[in-house]
Design brief:
- By secondary structure, this protein is of the alpha+beta class.
- Helix content is 47%, strand content 19%.
- The strands form 3 sheets. The chain has a 5-stranded antiparallel β-sheet with strand order 2-1-5-4-3, with helices on both faces. A 5-stranded mixed β-sheet has the order 7-9-10-12-11, with helices on one face.
- It binds adenosine-5'-diphosphate.
Length: 428
Amino acid sequence: MREASPRHSLIRALLLGTWLLAVTLLAGLVRQALAGFALAAALALIWMSWSTHRLRCLPTPGAAPSAPPTPSGHDPRRVRRLAAQFRALRNAVAALPDAVVLLDEQFRALWFNPASDTLLGLRRPRHLRCDLREQLRGTLIGDWLAAGASEPLHDIPAPHDAQRRLSLSLIPVGATQRLLLARDISTLARLEQMRRDFVANVSHELRTPLTVIHGYLELLDPEDVPQLAGVLGDMRAQSKRMAQIVEDLLTLSRLETQSGASEEPVAMAPLLATLRREAEALSQGRHRITLEVETPANLFGSLKDLHSACSNLVSNAVRYTPSGGSIRIRWQQLEDGSGAFSVIDTGYGIPAHHISRLTERFYRVSSSRSRDSGGTGLGLSIVKHALGMHQARIEIRSEPGQGSTFTALFPAARMLLPGASGDATPRG
Ligand code: ADP
């Protein structure tokens, strides 16, 4: 039987405490403290059950027992102490409001806490040792598990209560086991919905008065009141800017509430030609604008949202490239079948530390430059949302003083083979 001195037990307890604290703090840094604690506690639980098992099964030759062994060869005090620690940890995990389910490699539930009943509808003993992919088949969670659950699942209805919203993640534990964590985010989802409704309602309410003000300002001729010509010009420019902000906020609200892109074949040739015309109109001859169409492939998605995303990238290139610079609009199909729409400019460029934040609402590298060029600070947010609805993403490369390349990358499944745009069936 292996020796366990009080010093070792103290070290074990300290190690365990430090582990729980470290993972919780680490997870706290990414605002997932509760999930972090759940994960840490569950991993500790697994470690303790393994070490209990090891202590029972692996006697160390030559080690002197601290208490007389029982007829079965176990140190009763040590086994009792470990059992108590094991129970304490299991109770801690059981008390968590998040569902914690330990799964084996066949997705069979080995253990789950009571919250798994409320959130996932798992009952003991009915669902113990059951393949959860089968048990939850036909639900979003079942499909997600069956597909391998490589990415977390955000904001979905609970299997037995559609009013409850859940976020799920699957974490590998050791070589074969996994930990399924489900968290009730109903309150967060409600708050998020309230925020969305508020922004949409305010934008809507502002639209009419702004249109009226703008209309009256247009009626006033600066030549009739030359002493107010400058003021009138400023008022017109500002009311136009406010109207554009309201329109962009409404576009973002629409994209946020829309669950997916409308599925239609989008012919790229006319879209690209329109983008080029728009760029030339905005540039007024100040830039050299070229269009490089390297593939006849079309896209499957929403024309309105694709146009919105691409034209934002093109207008940014024009606005952030000084006169005399060049702008290339490129459409190509990459080797893996995916599509790449790029806008390459020779403009001001962007320092590296700003790049990861550019798609945040109202984030600007230079506020004055953005305002002077008529920016609202919402363009790249719109691009990100519109692309997200097409399972596409934005890639940004930039060098200050050298220029920028913004690329929208579309999955191969959204690419339409030539000739298929009329009765389109997406590839892949
Ligand atoms: P804005 O309306 O201010 O242009 P965006 O969301 O479209 O807002 O862009 C966010 C910021 O990213 C801009 O304010 C600008 O600083 C920077 N940016 C976007 N596109 C470019 C570009 N092609 N070249 C340089 N900077 C850019």
